[in-house]
Amino acid sequence: MLHHLTFCGCTPLRKLILAVLPVLIAVFVMIAGNGLLNTLIPYRATVEGFSPTMVGVIGSAYFLGMLGGTWTAPSIVRRAGHTRAFAAYSAIVAVAVLAFPLAVSPFPWIGLRAIVGFCFAGLYAVVEGWISAKAGASHRGRLLGIYNVANFSGSALGQQTLRAFEPKSFALFSAAAAFLMLALVPMAMTKADPPPLPAKGRLVISELWFFSPVSIVTALLLGLANGTFWSIVPAYVQRLHLGPDTVASFMTFAIIGSALTPYPVGRLSDRFDRRMVIAGMSIAVMLPEIGLALTAKPSLFWLYTLGFLVGGLITVLYPLMTALSVDRLGPEKAVAVASTTLFIYCLGAIVGPTLVAWLMTTYGDRALFIHNALVHIGITAFALWRIYREGPIPHGNKRSVDAGDERPVG
């Protein structure tokens, strides 16, 4: 039971969850809007006759906007505070979402998608920094796992909203904007104290590379894989000519998998070297990716099963990498760490969708999953190499600087 879970004399997990509950509710509602949008935009673009390459460019524009957003988020949060920054980002992104059906054309959508990405970089920095700062190293993986359960449960709700209205109507964009505005309510009403403001309004790339190169490399390669998966796979399923319900169901199965796995994997990473867990999860996700690559026209059962497995495994790596990063640099830099890891993730995610769209045009749709399997091989190889070179982390998952040890530890 949660009320029995106390770690190393720290705050009980149940009390920590209650302290961040308004943030978790806001995440659930916010991601319901973004989850709907992430599937709606490539699906609607395909229905409107946009080329696969243009769908990939629109997906890359989201991460290009995120790149700019991560660069500015620490200074904006430092200036406005966590709650007011969250409110400002939410209002801007809701307006941008409402503009999509007003200009159904590739180039306006590229610009609007970049604005959405910019704002979500700030929203993620606020909520992930808030949650990471409240957690200790002994249970940071679990709390970030619970955050990801809220994240992907909200996304599953958003995917199902796609069934409620005609894909070419204004209503789905209105629903996404409504979710994003409703996320303001729990954040505005909370009495919980936000974490301290960032000490400096800048990214911490060099510090993160020194103390945790695995975090840097994992973030970059995850951008190539995850950014591609979420941006391109709705169009891949649509090109199987199985109808919009199949697109919504496939994405829902992937997201249900994403909601079920973060807590147990986070619990595992709190007990063992997070680098080893990152390597193990990267190996595991390659298997269903190879299964999708080898199947030209999968049955619905096989499609949904592999979607569930890929979704359940592809998304656990980001919170593991985030927990490892905050372990190394400390909770006082949680917002800067959240922005830095997202910045590096976006570098990969900008390249991934456009590159894979070209590969799919040249070599066929299965190139999507071959590409992602190769990326996960890279993550596994680098994590294992760092473990081999540095050996076990001397203080569990605590950062070495806690004990005065200034050498890099993975």
Task: Describe it.
This protein has 410 residues and is mostly helical. The chain has one domain (14-403): Up-down Bundle (Growth Hormone, Chain: A). It has 17 helices and no strands. The two termini are 33 Å apart.
Give the SSE map.
Elements: H1 13-19, H2 21-47, H3 52-80, H4 82-99, H5 106-134, H6 140-161, H7 171-182, H8 184-189, H9 205-211, H10 213-238, H11 244-260, H12 262-271, H13 274-293, H14 300-314, H15 317-329, H16 334-363, H17 367-390
- Tally the helices: 17
> Within the CATH hierarchy, at the fold level, what is the topology?
Growth Hormone, Chain: A
The CATH homologous superfamily is termed MFS general substrate transporter like domains
Largest sheet, described in full?
Answer: none
CATH architecture annotation: Up-down Bundle
Q: How many domains?
A: 1
Low-confidence stretches: 1-10, 399-409
Beta-strand percentage range: under 5%
Question: In one word, what is the shape?
Answer: globular
Report the count of strand segments: 0
**Distance from first to last alpha carbon:** 33 Å
Summarize the structure.
This protein has helices spanning 13-19, 21-47, 52-80, 82-99, 106-134, 140-161, 171-182, 184-189, 205-211, 213-238, 244-260, 262-271, 274-293, 300-314, 317-329, 334-363, 367-390. It is mostly helical. It has a single domain (14-403), classed as Up-down Bundle (Growth Hormone, Chain: A), CATH 1.20.1250.
